[in-house]
Amino acid sequence: MLSRQLARCLYARAPRRWSHSPAAALSGLNSVTETDLAHFATILPESAIISTIAPSAAPADELAPFNNDWMNKYHGRSTTVLKPRTTQEVSEIVKWCNQRRIGIVPQGGNTGLVGGSVPVKDELIISLANMSKVRAFDDVSGILVADAGCILQSLSDYLVPHNHIVPLDLGAKGSCQIGGNVSTNAGGLRLLRYGSLHGSVLGLEVVLPDGTILDQLTSLRKDNTGYDLKQLFIGAEGTLGIVTGVSILAAPAPQASNNVMLALPKFENVLPLFKETKRQLSEILSAFEFIDRTVYDLAVKHGQGRALDPSEVEGAECFVLVETSGGKREHDEEKLNSLLESLMEADEPLINTGVLATSPAQFSALWAIREGLTEAVSKEGKAYKYDISIPLAKFEEAVNKTKDHLRQKGLLHEGAVKHVVGYGHVGDANLHLNVVAADYTPEIEAALEPFVYELVASYKGSISAEHGIGLMKTHALQYSKSPTSIEWMKRIKGLFDPNGIMNPGKVLP
C-alpha cells in the first residue's frame, strides 16, 4: 500500500588555466618535432595520428577535444595526439619519448574533474580510445579482462547477457574508460556495495616510462607472492606508467533492484536514517546518496527531473536516494516496504515523505536526478568542485562554513558566488562541495584556497575522495599527506620515471 502511495509522487568569459605553476616538473622536456612525427608514422597508421605539425598539419580545432577538459577549465597546447591500437604500439611510442625526453599525457575519456588528463603545456597525448576490445570473460569466476580504452558503459552492456555487472558506476559511464577509472581509482555511486577498485582489480598490464611492458594481467583471486605492484598504478593518474589492460572481478547482476527518494526535514536526520537503513536493509543496501536542498532545486530547474511535487518538498532541507540490489524481488520489496512503513509511522519521523520506484522507468528517473547534479551545477554557472572525505556529521557544517566564509569576503551574491551546495556518497563519507560562481575569478579562488583544504584538514579528512589530485590539487597534497609520505611518493616516481616524462606536473607538488 505504501509503495503505491509513494509511487504517485514521482514525476516522472575567456577560458583560463586553473593551476599552480608546474613549471619545474616540465623543465628539461622536449616538444614533439617533425622528426618525432616521422618516427611515430613508422609505428601507427596515418589515421591514428592527429597533429598540427607538417606534414599532417591538422587544424587546431581537431585537437581541441583532447587539449581541453569537458568543463573547459583546463587547457593544454599539445600539437600531437596518438591513438595506438595495441600495447606493443604504446610501448614503442613511450620508449621513443623516454629517449627523446618528450612529456606524455595518457588520456582515456577525458572526463576527469581535476585536470589530470590534459596537457599542462604541449606534451604528447596518447589516447587509449582505439584500445577497446574485451579480451576475455569467465562467467564462472566473473573475471573480465579488457583493453584500457573500453568505455565503462560498453563493458556494462557486454556483461548484461552474462548476468554480471562492472563493480563501478559513474555519472560519466557513457564516456569514461576503464583504464582511466583504474588510473584515477574512481569511486562512484555504489562503492558502498562493491568497494573500491583497489579490491576489485585483480591485475593490470602497464607500459612503464622506459617502454617496458609490465604484464601483471592475472585472473587469480588469490596471489600472495610478494609486493602487489598493481596497487601502485591504481590511483597514480598515469604518472608511473600507462595502463593498457585491466583484469577486474565483475559482480553477479542483481536479480532485483529498487530505489526510493526520501525528503528529510533537517540534515541532522541523515545519520540516524543511514543507521536505521543499514540495520533494516542489511545485505541488499547498495547506495545511500545525500542531496542538499539547493542542488536538488538546481536539478529541477535545469531539467534533470523531479522526484516529488513542489508541495511535498516544502519544509525539506535535504534528500536521500536509497538503492537496494538483491537476489529475490519479493524478499527485497518486503524489507524496503518494512523500512518505509517504520519511517513513516515513527513517533518522531526522520522523513517528511518519499517516492518509491515501481518500474524500471521510475528507477532510472530517480537515478537521473542524482547523476544529473554535476550537469545541473555546470548549467547554473562556473563550478569550483571540491571532492572531499570528511566525517558524515560534518557534511552540512562544511557547506555552511564555506558559505559563511564567502559571505564574509563579500563574494556571496549573483555577480560572484551564486550557490554553495553539497551532495555525495554517505556510504563512504564522500562530500562533493560545489561552489557555483558567475565566472572563474582570482578573487574567488583565493577565497576558497587554502580555506577549503584547511577546513578538510581540521576534520582529519582527505582533499580528494575519488577525483584524484591531477593538476588542480598538487599544491594541496600537504593537507592530506605528511612530508614523509610525499617524500616517498616522490622517490617512487623517481624510481619508475627518472626522466619525468609521465604526465608531468600532476599529482606531486
Structure explained in plain terms:
The protein is of the alpha+beta class and 509 residues long. The chain is 32% helix and 20% strand. The protein contains 19 helices and 18 strands. The strands form 4 sheets. Strands 15-12-14-13-17-18-16 form a 7-stranded antiparallel β-sheet, with helices on both faces. A 5-stranded antiparallel β-sheet has the order 5-6-10-8-9. Strand 5 and strand 6 form a beta hairpin. The chain is globular. The N and C termini lie far apart (58 Å).
Helix content: 25-40%
How many beta-strand runs?
A: 18
Q: Which class of secondary structure composition applies to the elements?
A: alpha+beta
Uncertain runs are 1-19
The radius of gyration over CA amounts to 23 Å
**Which geometry do the CA atoms define?**
globular
The helix tally amounts to 19
Strand arrangement within the widest β-sheet reads: 15-12-14-13-17-18-16
User: What is the overall pLDDT average?
Assistant: 92
Taking the sheet with the most strands, its summary is: 7 strands, antiparallel
Beta-strand residue fraction: 15-25%
Q: CA-to-CA gap between the ends?
A: 58 Å
